[in-house]
Amino acid sequence: MRTTWWQALAVGCGLALLGAGAQAQGLGDAVRDAGSAVARMRVGTIEIKDVTLGGQGGASVTIGRAAFAGFSRDGGTVVASRLAIENLTATVATQTWRIPLVTLDGVRIPEELYRALAEGAATTRPWPDLFRDVVADLVTIGTITVTDKSLNSEQVLSGFVLTRLAQGVIATARLDGIALTSAPDPKMPVRMKTGAVRYQDLDIGESLRIFTGGDGTPRRVMTSASIDGMEIVTPAATVRLGTYEIGPVTLAAPAEPMPTDLAALATTLQTGAQPDQAVVAKIVRWYRGLLRGLRVESIGLRDIAVTAPDVDLTIAAVGLGGMVASGFDLFEVTGIALRTPDGPIRLGRLAIEKASFAALVDLGLDAAETGREPEIEPSKILDLLPQIAAVRLAELDAATPEGPVTLGAFDLEIDRPGALPERLALALTRLTLPVGPADGSDGREALAKIGYTTIRIDTRTRLRWLPAEKALVLDDTSLAVAEAGRVDATLRIDGVDLAAALADPERADAILESQARLGGVEISVADLGLADRFYADLAKSAGVTVQVARDRLSTETRAQAAEAFGGALSPAALDKIAAFVRRPGRIAVKAAPRPGQTVKLDDLETMGPKVLSRMRLDIDVTPPR
């Protein structure tokens, strides 16, 4: 297990402050051998040497010397002007913690805790409760060194200063820095160093209940923490970070203590051996309870730079808000800049809103607890999909071999109150693409031929499922190309029983095909400049005037429509189509089944006279201005 700076502080404080963390780590609730501690008393001074605390799984804590200066008793409290703890060493699984010197000024310790440490006496209260009665005005630790044999790592935390410990809560704490070297693979060493680390309102007492057992009630265990600068160096890349900040953290300590098998399990996994499934199941059940109460209000990283032989990436900020074990309220990245051989790529903002992975987390925990691969029913697959309320991009600017590509904004919104989404909305604004003669796959070659060098696209669409009406509705849908044209559309499909299809995946296609039918459709097309360019090119190619080109195409289109749709289109409707082709302004076509008629979706694939005869068509043409 790699030790994080959060773990280092929490466990380090627990160990340093009179060994209170010994029980928290399963190291025993008293001095194993009272004879191993030697106490000497002088007037106002107590000295304890060679304290050893041991526990299950080979874990242990040793204290070379603990000296109380200005010692006195005040009722049930031991008071000291200063407590110095020397040569504190703790071993947990493959980790070893070494603290040469800890000093605590203005110390008040419960008599019961003092007797347990100095005399090996048993305690009647849980250690976290006793720890909450410890008071210290100032705690200083020169260095904390953590080594891990399994990871071939060493971590050094230096210059630790704590102000005001009371009721288990540290008012403020500061580290000058952290330095880490780790090389599980000797060929891939990792080095990390940080600037100052700061904490506010760190509830060590409540955090210790994770190990000894709590009541499952969510409580704040930290108001804030920050790191002033970080650098991570690997053979492949270097990562630099300007600041790291974490907001309020809430935790609910499970009623059950941390399983004593956890350290042994970590060792087993690190050696590659097969763990005991009963042990794994017990730990997973405990871990599930711990995750249930975890919440981090905010995490922020700023001024990130990643450099590697083929990478030059900078990010202004990364933020995560409302994080719980199963998801988050907001993930946001701003100010992204990446250098590529073709030129820079910049993105102003990437955001994901209201994400939940609860079903997947539960599936993974269930599999870990049982030791069996999950069996997923086809009808339940959609339940496992992550729920995401929105994905947003803004201010994209990318250099490509064809030319610059820009995007104002991309917004995808999803309303999913159940297994299926009930609303999907997509909007894309100010997308600008280069147009060149080599662009043939998406129609841009044709646009280049008639004089376009760039195109700007704005599009939006909304798809709604109405469960009560068993209908799919497409509305608020448009595609506009600047100086070319615009298309707007609405569509309603009735008889869409998605719930029935979801419940019977093997027959889903048959269910939808047998019931889905057209409710109505409306499409409008407006010319915004494309027609003039098109007819000019057509006339030039044919060697005729523009007006002749317009008249010819208008006549041909009317004849083709009459042949294709027969009597389903009236002469007046054909005239309107011809008029629009000759002088495009705006044309709107509405279609819906006639009363008593049904148009199935597969009928629309042919769209011949027989199908159109069952539909009411309305065509409206507006001439150009």
TrEMBL record:
Print the keywords alphabetically. Signal
Q: Which residues form the signal peptide?
A: 1-24
Instruction: Write the protein's name.
Output: Uncharacterized protein
Task: Name the source's superkingdom.
Answer: Bacteria
